[in-house]
Amino acid sequence: MKAKKLLTLLFVVFLTVVFACSCSSESEKEKKFEHPKVKALDFTLPDVDGNNVNLKEKYTKKPVLLYFWATWCPHCRKAPAKLKELLSEYGSDKLMILGVNVGSGDSLERVKRYRDKNKIPYTILYDKGSKVTRSYNVRGIPLFILIDTDGYIVYFSHEVPKKLDRFLKKG
Length: 171
What we know:
CATH class: Alpha Beta
Strand content: 15-25%
Mean pLDDT: 84
CATH topology: Glutaredoxin
Number of helices: 6
Order of helices and strands: HEEHEHEHEHEEH
Number of strands: 7
Structural class: alpha/beta
Low-confidence stretches: 17-31
Shape: globular
Distance between the termini: 30 Å
Largest sheet: 5 strands, mixed
Radius of gyration: 15 Å
Number of domains: 1
Helix content: 25-40%
């Protein structure tokens, strides 16, 4: 079991390096994830209200967009408006957004105030200790990871995806 977790972690690290080293033109920023299919690592984190949220339980019902962020990140401040647009376009019945606060440098109280001040309509999870953030090998925020209903990562980028349809088509 420990070997399987290590192998999965190494594969996620490999994919992160591949993405970080690849150069993309403007037209290729939203290129479909064309690497070998990788299953998303399951986790359970509390939301800012103390309710436990399990990733696998969510993506089996609808695609999930993980958004790794922090209140102190200047680039993260632009994302909520774009994510609200995605929710408006696709509806909460077709897409779930889980904003994973990376925990580093943010208190739970600060994250709650940020959520309330910015009227965030999606679920905010608090990764105290950054365990999930480390398991996904997050290097730089914001980071967006789209997971399809089969649990596979189909989008991985520091940019908010503009159109999700091409990433969610089966086949």
